[in-house]
From TrEMBL:
Cellular component annotations (GO), alphabetically ordered: cytoplasm
Catalytic reaction equation(s): CMP + ATP = CDP + ADP; dCMP + ATP = dCDP + ADP
Short name of one Pfam family: Cytidylate_kin
EC number: 2.7.4.25
Entry-linked CDD domains: CMPK (cd02020)
Span of domain Cytidylate kinase: 27-236
Location(s), subcellular: Cytoplasm
Protein known as: Cytidylate kinase
Annotated positions binding ATP: G31, P32, S33, G34, S35, G36, K37, S38, S39
Protein backbone atom coordinates (compact mmCIF):
# COMPACT_ATOMS: atom_id res chain seq x y z
CA UNK A 1 0.00 0.00 0.00
CA UNK A 2 2.34 2.69 -1.24
CA UNK A 3 1.60 6.05 0.33
CA UNK A 4 -0.57 4.59 3.09
CA UNK A 5 -1.93 7.42 5.25
CA UNK A 6 -2.11 5.62 8.57
CA UNK A 7 1.17 7.16 9.68
CA UNK A 8 2.16 10.81 9.78
CA UNK A 9 5.09 12.86 10.94
CA UNK A 10 5.52 16.08 12.82
CA UNK A 11 8.81 17.81 12.07
CA UNK A 12 10.03 20.38 14.53
CA UNK A 13 12.46 22.96 13.22
CA UNK A 14 16.08 21.89 12.93
CA UNK A 15 18.30 23.77 15.42
CA UNK A 16 19.38 27.09 13.84
CA UNK A 17 23.09 26.35 14.29
CA UNK A 18 22.88 23.23 12.16
CA UNK A 19 24.25 23.65 8.60
CA UNK A 20 21.57 23.51 5.95
CA UNK A 21 21.88 21.24 2.94
CA UNK A 22 19.19 21.97 0.38
CA UNK A 23 19.71 19.03 -1.98
CA UNK A 24 18.00 15.67 -1.69
CA UNK A 25 20.13 13.25 0.33
CA UNK A 26 19.10 9.96 1.86
CA UNK A 27 21.43 8.36 4.39
CA UNK A 28 20.46 4.73 5.01
CA UNK A 29 21.91 2.91 8.01
CA UNK A 30 21.21 -0.71 8.91
CA UNK A 31 22.56 -2.88 11.68
CA UNK A 32 21.85 -5.38 14.43
CA UNK A 33 20.50 -4.68 17.91
CA UNK A 34 22.87 -2.79 20.16
CA UNK A 35 25.08 -1.57 17.34
CA UNK A 36 24.32 2.03 18.26
CA UNK A 37 22.22 2.88 15.21
CA UNK A 38 19.73 5.14 16.94
CA UNK A 39 22.12 7.25 19.01
CA UNK A 40 24.71 7.50 16.23
CA UNK A 41 22.17 8.42 13.57
CA UNK A 42 20.43 10.99 15.78
CA UNK A 43 23.74 12.69 16.55
CA UNK A 44 24.80 12.65 12.90
CA UNK A 45 21.44 14.03 11.76
CA UNK A 46 21.66 16.86 14.29
CA UNK A 47 25.14 17.84 13.13
CA UNK A 48 24.18 17.62 9.47
CA UNK A 49 20.87 19.46 9.87
CA UNK A 50 18.97 16.47 8.53
CA UNK A 51 15.72 14.83 9.51
CA UNK A 52 15.91 11.50 11.34
CA UNK A 53 13.76 8.40 11.04
CA UNK A 54 13.88 5.51 13.50
CA UNK A 55 12.06 2.77 11.59
CA UNK A 56 12.49 0.36 14.48
CA UNK A 57 10.33 2.66 16.59
CA UNK A 58 7.55 2.22 14.05
CA UNK A 59 7.63 -1.57 14.49
CA UNK A 60 7.72 -1.12 18.25
CA UNK A 61 4.75 1.25 18.15
CA UNK A 62 2.83 -1.25 16.02
CA UNK A 63 3.64 -3.97 18.57
CA UNK A 64 2.49 -1.75 21.44
CA UNK A 65 -0.78 -1.07 19.60
CA UNK A 66 -1.40 -4.75 18.91
CA UNK A 67 -0.87 -5.60 22.57
CA UNK A 68 -3.13 -2.74 23.66
CA UNK A 69 -5.83 -3.99 21.30
CA UNK A 70 -5.28 -7.56 22.57
CA UNK A 71 -4.42 -8.78 19.08
CA UNK A 72 -2.98 -12.28 18.94
CA UNK A 73 0.51 -11.72 17.53
CA UNK A 74 0.46 -15.23 16.09
CA UNK A 75 -2.58 -14.30 13.99
CA UNK A 76 -0.82 -12.79 10.97
CA UNK A 77 -3.97 -11.40 9.38
CA UNK A 78 -5.18 -9.77 12.58
CA UNK A 79 -1.79 -8.14 13.09
CA UNK A 80 -1.82 -6.82 9.51
CA UNK A 81 -5.31 -5.36 10.01
CA UNK A 82 -4.20 -3.68 13.23
CA UNK A 83 -1.12 -2.19 11.55
CA UNK A 84 -3.22 -0.92 8.65
CA UNK A 85 -5.41 1.08 11.06
CA UNK A 86 -2.53 2.08 13.35
CA UNK A 87 -2.92 5.82 14.22
CA UNK A 88 0.83 6.44 14.38
CA UNK A 89 2.57 9.79 14.47
CA UNK A 90 6.39 9.87 14.59
CA UNK A 91 8.58 12.94 14.75
CA UNK A 92 11.61 13.34 12.48
CA UNK A 93 13.48 15.89 14.58
CA UNK A 94 16.64 14.12 15.85
CA UNK A 95 16.67 16.28 18.99
CA UNK A 96 13.05 15.72 19.95
CA UNK A 97 11.77 12.24 19.24
CA UNK A 98 8.09 11.89 20.06
CA UNK A 99 6.00 8.90 19.06
CA UNK A 100 2.25 8.82 19.57
CA UNK A 101 -0.41 6.26 18.83
CA UNK A 102 -3.74 8.03 18.77
CA UNK A 103 -3.78 10.21 21.88
CA UNK A 104 -1.15 8.12 23.69
CA UNK A 105 2.47 9.24 23.91
CA UNK A 106 4.32 5.92 23.60
CA UNK A 107 7.85 7.31 23.27
CA UNK A 108 8.97 5.58 26.47
CA UNK A 109 6.44 2.74 26.52
CA UNK A 110 7.76 1.16 23.31
CA UNK A 111 11.23 0.75 24.83
CA UNK A 112 10.25 -1.60 27.65
CA UNK A 113 11.49 -5.20 27.73
CA UNK A 114 8.10 -6.70 26.80
CA UNK A 115 8.03 -4.78 23.51
CA UNK A 116 11.63 -5.76 22.77
CA UNK A 117 10.74 -9.41 23.21
CA UNK A 118 7.52 -9.25 21.14
CA UNK A 119 8.44 -6.88 18.31
CA UNK A 120 9.89 -9.61 16.09
CA UNK A 121 6.43 -11.11 15.70
CA UNK A 122 5.27 -7.93 14.03
CA UNK A 123 8.52 -7.22 12.18
CA UNK A 124 8.48 -10.64 10.51
CA UNK A 125 4.81 -10.41 9.49
CA UNK A 126 4.96 -9.88 5.67
CA UNK A 127 1.74 -7.87 5.36
CA UNK A 128 2.45 -5.68 8.37
CA UNK A 129 6.01 -5.16 7.16
CA UNK A 130 4.82 -4.08 3.69
CA UNK A 131 2.53 -1.46 5.24
CA UNK A 132 5.27 -0.04 7.43
CA UNK A 133 7.80 -0.02 4.59
CA UNK A 134 5.37 1.99 2.46
CA UNK A 135 4.98 4.49 5.29
CA UNK A 136 8.75 4.72 5.75
CA UNK A 137 9.26 5.42 2.06
CA UNK A 138 6.63 8.14 2.17
CA UNK A 139 8.38 9.84 5.10
CA UNK A 140 11.78 9.64 3.39
CA UNK A 141 10.39 11.09 0.17
CA UNK A 142 8.69 13.91 2.06
CA UNK A 143 11.75 14.93 4.07
CA UNK A 144 14.34 14.94 1.27
CA UNK A 145 17.45 15.18 3.49
CA UNK A 146 17.16 12.45 6.09
CA UNK A 147 19.11 9.89 8.06
CA UNK A 148 16.99 6.73 8.24
CA UNK A 149 18.03 3.72 10.29
CA UNK A 150 16.74 0.21 10.77
CA UNK A 151 17.37 -3.29 9.46
CA UNK A 152 16.42 -3.17 5.78
CA UNK A 153 16.84 0.50 4.84
CA UNK A 154 19.88 -0.05 2.63
CA UNK A 155 18.36 -2.99 0.75
CA UNK A 156 14.56 -2.67 0.75
CA UNK A 157 13.27 0.69 1.95
CA UNK A 158 15.83 2.99 0.29
CA UNK A 159 18.20 0.92 -1.86
CA UNK A 160 18.86 4.04 -3.97
CA UNK A 161 20.09 6.09 -0.99
CA UNK A 162 23.17 8.19 -1.70
CA UNK A 163 24.86 6.89 1.47
CA UNK A 164 24.33 3.27 2.53
CA UNK A 165 26.03 1.96 5.65
CA UNK A 166 25.88 -1.23 7.70
CA UNK A 167 26.73 -0.22 11.27
CA UNK A 168 27.87 -3.24 13.21
CA UNK A 169 29.78 -4.26 16.32
CA UNK A 170 30.85 -7.44 18.05
CA UNK A 171 28.28 -9.38 20.07
CA UNK A 172 30.17 -8.52 23.25
CA UNK A 173 30.10 -4.80 22.49
CA UNK A 174 26.41 -4.86 21.57
CA UNK A 175 25.42 -6.69 24.74
CA UNK A 176 27.48 -4.29 26.84
CA UNK A 177 25.95 -1.22 25.20
CA UNK A 178 22.39 -2.43 25.46
CA UNK A 179 22.96 -3.32 29.11
CA UNK A 180 24.28 0.19 29.80
CA UNK A 181 21.34 1.67 27.90
CA UNK A 182 18.94 -0.20 30.18
CA UNK A 183 20.80 0.92 33.28
CA UNK A 184 21.84 -2.59 34.27
CA UNK A 185 18.24 -3.63 34.93
CA UNK A 186 18.41 -6.74 32.71
CA UNK A 187 20.24 -9.95 33.57
CA UNK A 188 22.51 -11.66 31.04
CA UNK A 189 19.81 -13.99 29.74
CA UNK A 190 17.30 -11.18 29.24
CA UNK A 191 19.92 -9.16 27.37
CA UNK A 192 20.69 -12.08 25.08
CA UNK A 193 16.98 -12.45 24.29
CA UNK A 194 16.64 -8.76 23.49
CA UNK A 195 19.80 -8.52 21.39
CA UNK A 196 21.09 -11.77 19.93
CA UNK A 197 17.89 -13.85 19.92
CA UNK A 198 15.90 -10.99 18.43
CA UNK A 199 18.48 -10.59 15.66
CA UNK A 200 18.14 -14.27 14.84
CA UNK A 201 14.35 -13.97 14.55
CA UNK A 202 14.39 -10.74 12.56
CA UNK A 203 17.01 -12.02 10.13
CA UNK A 204 14.28 -14.24 8.68
CA UNK A 205 12.67 -11.09 7.26
CA UNK A 206 15.74 -9.01 6.37
CA UNK A 207 19.49 -9.47 6.15
CA UNK A 208 21.18 -6.90 8.36
CA UNK A 209 24.29 -8.85 9.34
CA UNK A 210 26.08 -8.86 5.97
CA UNK A 211 26.50 -5.77 3.81
CA UNK A 212 24.83 -5.94 0.40
CA UNK A 213 26.68 -4.81 -2.71
CA UNK A 214 27.44 -1.13 -2.52
CA UNK A 215 26.86 -0.91 1.24
CA UNK A 216 29.83 0.25 3.34
CA UNK A 217 30.58 -1.47 6.65
CA UNK A 218 31.22 0.65 9.74
CA UNK A 219 32.40 -1.54 12.61
CA UNK A 220 32.15 0.40 15.86
CA UNK A 221 33.46 -2.34 18.17
CA UNK A 222 36.69 -0.47 18.91
CA UNK A 223 35.45 3.05 18.22
CA UNK A 224 34.16 5.60 20.67
CA UNK A 225 30.68 6.98 20.19
CA UNK A 226 32.01 10.25 18.75
CA UNK A 227 34.41 8.46 16.43
CA UNK A 228 31.51 6.44 15.05
CA UNK A 229 29.39 9.55 14.56
CA UNK A 230 32.27 11.36 12.88
CA UNK A 231 32.86 8.44 10.53
CA UNK A 232 29.24 8.45 9.41
CA UNK A 233 29.22 12.24 8.99
CA UNK A 234 32.39 12.13 6.89
CA UNK A 235 30.76 9.63 4.52
CA UNK A 236 27.77 11.92 4.12
CA UNK A 237 29.90 15.02 3.57
CA UNK A 238 31.93 13.16 0.96
CA UNK A 239 28.74 12.25 -0.88
CA UNK A 240 27.49 15.84 -0.60
CA UNK A 241 30.77 17.13 -2.04
CA UNK A 242 30.57 14.72 -4.93
CA UNK A 243 27.14 16.11 -5.84
CA UNK A 244 28.00 19.80 -5.54
Amino acid sequence: MEGSSFVSTHTDEVPPEAPQYTGRMVVAVDGPSGSGKSSVCRAAATTLGAAYLDTGAMYRAATWYCLEQEVDLDDHKAVAVAVEELPLNISTNPDHQVITVGESDVTAAIRVALISEKVSQVATNPEARALLIAAQRAIIDREGFIVAEGRDITTVVAPDAQVRVLLTASAEARLRRRGAQLGGTQDDEALRRQVLDRDTKDSAASNFTVAADGVAVLDSSELSFQQTVDSLISRVQLAQGARS
